[in-house]
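Q: Could you fold this chain for me?
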Amino acid sequence: MAGRPVRAGWREWSGLALLALPTMLLGLDVTALYLVVPSLAADLDPTATETLWIMDAYGFLIAGSLITMGTLGDRLGRRRLLMIGMAAFAAASVVAAFAPGALWLIAARALLGVAGATLMPSTLSLISTLFADARQRALAIGVWATMFALGMAAGPVVGGALVAAFWWGAVFLIAVPVAVLVLVNAPVLLPESRTHGGRLDLLSVGLSLTALLPTIYAIKHLASHGLDVQAYVAAPIGAVSAIAFVRRQLRLKEPLLDIRLLTTNRAFASALTILLIGLAGFGGVMYLVTQYLQLVDGLTPTIAGLWMGPPALAMLVGAIGAPLLASRMSPGVVMATALTISLTGYALLALAGTDAKQTIVAGFGFAYLGLGVTAALGTDIVVGTAPPTKSGSAAALSETVQELGIAMGVALLGSLTAATYRSTIEVPSGLTKSAADAYGDSLSGAWSVMDELPPGALLNAQTAFTHGLNTAAIAAGIAVAAATLACFATLRHLRPLGQTAPELEPLPSASVSGDDRWNGDG
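A: Sure. Below is the predicted structure, expressed as C-alpha cells.
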C-alpha cells in the first residue's frame, strides 16, 4: 500500500510566501498603469497609438509566450527559469522606469511580458512540486490565485500613490526589491524541478506565437474598434496558425504542448473549459464595472479602486475556503455550487440602475467569489490531473486559457454593451457633427464633449450605458449558468482532495489507467 504524501513543513510554506511575491507583482503590473498614463504622457508625449501599445504590449507578450515558457521550465528547470525570469523582469522594469521615449517604454513593456510569461507557470508548477499533499496543494494554489487578484486590485491604488509621491517610473521599480528577495531566497527555499530535457521545437514556438498573438489582438481590437480590416486579417492568421500548431503537436514525439491531454483526460479538458467561460464572464464584467464606477457614479480612479476592495476580499474567501470544503466533498460540486452563487451577482448587475453603486459592487462581489473558487480549484484540477512531467506545460495552458478568457470577455461583453448603447441613445439636437458622433458612440465619448451637452444629456448617456451593462450581465449569467451545469455534469465525480481510491484486488484480465482522483464514468 502506498504511503500518504509527505505534508509540507515550514520550508514549503516559506517557499509559497516567496512565490507569492512575483505572483502579486505580475497582477499589480497589469493594472498599475491605469493612473499612471496621464503623468507618463506629459513626460513622453506618446501618440494615441503608442499609448495603446504601452498599455497592451505587456499583456500580449505574456499571453503569447506562456506555452513556450511553461514547456521551457519543464526542460530547463522551473526554479532556474523563475530566477532567470525574475532577473529579466527587474532589468526590464528599470529600463521602463527610465525610458527616454515612448518607443523605449513599449519595448520595455514587451520585455516585461516575455519575462512575466516565465514567472507565471514557474510559480504554479513549483507549488505542485512543493506540496505533494493534495489538500495542501489546493490551498496553496488558492493563495497563489488570491495574490494575483489582490495585485490587480491594488494596482491602481499603488500606482496613484507612487505617482503622487515620486514620479511615474517609480511604479516599475517595485520589481527591483522583489527580484532581490526572490533571487537571494529561491536557492534556499525552492527545490529545483526538471522532468525532461528534450529539444525545444522552434517551429512550434513560432506557430504558438502566430496563433496566440493575432488572435488576442483581433479580440482586443474588436472590443475597441469593432470589425474592421485589421480584425479580419488578424483573426484568420491566428486560426490558421492554431490549426497548424495542433497538427504539428500531434505528430511530434516531444511536443511543445501535449494536445492529447485535452482529448484523453476529461477532468483536465473540463476544468480548462470552465476556467475559460468563468474568466470570460468575470473579465467582461470587471471591465464594465470599473467604467460604471467612474463614468456613471463619477468616482475618481483611486476611489473606484478602493470600492473594488470588498469584492477582492470575497475572492480571497472563495480561493482560501474552497480547498477546505473540497477536502470534504467533491471539488466539482464545490465549484458548481460557487458558480451557482455567483449567478446572484450577475442578476444584481442585470437589475442595477444609474444610482446603484452598492448594488453594482455587491453583484461584482458575488462574481468575484465565484472566480476565487473556480480559479483555485479549476487550476488545481488542471495541474493535479496532468502528469508530473507536464506540470509546467499544464500550468502554462491554464494561464493561457485564463488570459484568453479575460480578453474574450472584455471584447464580447464590451461590444454588446457598446451595441446596446448605440441602439438606445438619442443624440440631442444642436451638437456639432464631431460632438454628436462622440456622444452617440460611447459614454466616454459623451464625457469628452460634456461642455457642449444640454442639461440631462449626460444622464441619458449614463442610462444607455447602464442598460448595456444590464444586457451584458444577462449574457454573462447565461454563459456562467451553462458552465455551472457542465461543471456538475463532468466534474462531480472527482473525489475530495486527499482521498484516493480504495485498493482492490485486480482481476486477471483487468487493467487500470488514468487519474486516481477520478471516480466513476460519468
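A (continued): The longest helix spans residues 457-491.
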